[in-house]
Amino acid sequence: MGLFSKKENVFLPVAKNRFYIEYQFPSSSALMMTNFEWLETCMKNAQTGKAIWKVEYPINTAQLIILENERHIQEIGNRIQGVSNLILNRIGEKVNQENLDLFNSQLLLGGALALVEIRSGLAINGLMHPSIQNAICFARTSSEKSKNLKLDVQADKALEVGYGLLRYGKEPVERFLENIRQLS
């Protein structure tokens, strides 16, 4: 049966189009915000029994994708290959193993979240599912990634870059990086 069943969609709740946000290419000067209206809707539905859904499901599913199927890792890996180096150079940070690992993990999680959205059948071209939007926001704030705040902020952007790279696979890598800059 696998992770994505044709019978039912248990990884992303069905959302009305009004809850989706327009996809914006990542930018160092813009911050994606949590969709509180969608979060409240999901919490109400979970309490009434209409839908069993939790905030962490997209992230848990993304981690399952990474662990369950080597083909998914290869698909993401092929698309994000070398992107960490490009980001680190653009933001003026050292290209060392610690920084590469940090950015690669964020790119991988972002790519896996894109696969969750794509495989769920709820992807709408040019828009981002509100659960994925919230998952990116929650993953961004869930933990300290390094001792360098500026590096953490840019690593958070790598989540968005990873998502975009997989979700809009025909776009060139440079399109996702053109607004990523060194923070002052």
Structure description:
The chain contains eight helices and two strands. By secondary structure, it is mostly helical. It has a domain at 54-177. The protein has a two-stranded antiparallel ribbon. The longest helix has 24 residues, at 97-120. Mean pLDDT is 84; it is low at 1-8 and 48-53.
Summed over residues and divided by their number, the pLDDT gives a mean of 84
What structural category do the secondary elements indicate?
Answer: mainly alpha
CA gyration radius, whole angstroms? 16 Å
The total count of helices amounts to 8
Q: Low-confidence runs (pLDDT<50, min 5 residues)?
A: 1-8, 48-53
Shape: globular
- Please provide the count of β strands: 2
The description of the largest β-sheet is: 2 strands, antiparallel
Measured by DSSP, the beta-strand proportion falls in under 5%
Spell out the helices and strands N to C.
EHHHHHEHHH
* Distance between the first and last residues' Cα: 49 Å
Helical proportion?
Answer: 55-70%
Strand order of the largest sheet: 1-2
